[in-house]
Write a structure and sequence with these properties.
With about 210 residues, the chain is mostly helical. It contains eight helices and three strands.
């Protein structure tokens, strides 16, 4: 058993190169600030499970880190997160959605969403038409929102930019380790279905203590 907590059966299949294996061996015993955090609190809270505390703290930190990296990537395209979410939802529904449906998808009030769409429309990322084909200035229930080619291209470029940091971080793991991690996190996610109906919710407010 190594640092990764499982028998690396794929070693026998020569998945890793010699240099890669040496790098992983060098990581045995490596520490990060979370280890110091756990060590500091263990004497104060003797019942603290160091593995759970370490995992939760790292997940919270990584989620926050990726959120900030994603928002920085969006800023390079002059987009706020809520504006990109509107483009993202439109792209996921074939590029077309009415205002009421889109508001429900995003969990936003139609009036609030209409203000976001004003910005996106001015930049040429979306078009807005009423059911009768007349462009409207107000957010009507029958209003149809459509993603333009420019809006789709900007959405996709922003997705790629935001994904760079994800690929960099998870590149520290090989394919088998990524698959294992995804499976372990899936088990934990499934456990949330029995807790307060929170399964499937997004944008949790994570906090963590680097002390």
């Amino acid at each position: 058993m190594g640092q990764w907590g499982y028998e690396r059966q794929h070693d026998a299949l020569d998945v890793d190169g010699e240099a890669e294996a040496e790098q992983r061996d060098a990581l045995e015993g490596a520490r990060d600030w979370v280890d110091d955090h756990v060590d500091r609190w263990q004497p104060v809270l003797p019942e603290l499970n160091p593995h759970i505390e370490g995992a939760v703290t790292r997940m919270q930190f990584l989620a926050d880190h990726l959120r900030r990296a994603g928002e920085q990537a969006l800023a390079e395209f002059g987009l706020r997160r809520e504006e990109h979410e509107a483009l993202h939802m439109l792209a996921g529904h074939g590029g077309r959605r009415d205002l009421t449906q889109l508001a429900l998808d995003l969990g936003a009030a139609p009036s609030t969403l209409s203000e976001r769409l004003d910005v996106l429309e001015k930049r040429g990322f979306v078009t807005r038409e009423s059911a009768g084909g007349r462009t409207t200035a107000e957010g009507e229930q029958g209003e149809r929102i459509e993603l333009t080619d420019e809006g789709h291209a900007t959405w996709l470029a922003a997705i790629e930019a935001a994904g760079e940091e994800e690929r960099r971080l998870f590149g520290a793991l090989d394919w088998h380790e990524q698959r294992l991690l995804a499976g372990l996190l899936r088990q934990i996610m499934l456990a949330t279905e029995t807790y307060d109906g929170t399964a499937g919710t997004d944008d949790q407010d994570w906090t963590y203590d680097q002390g």
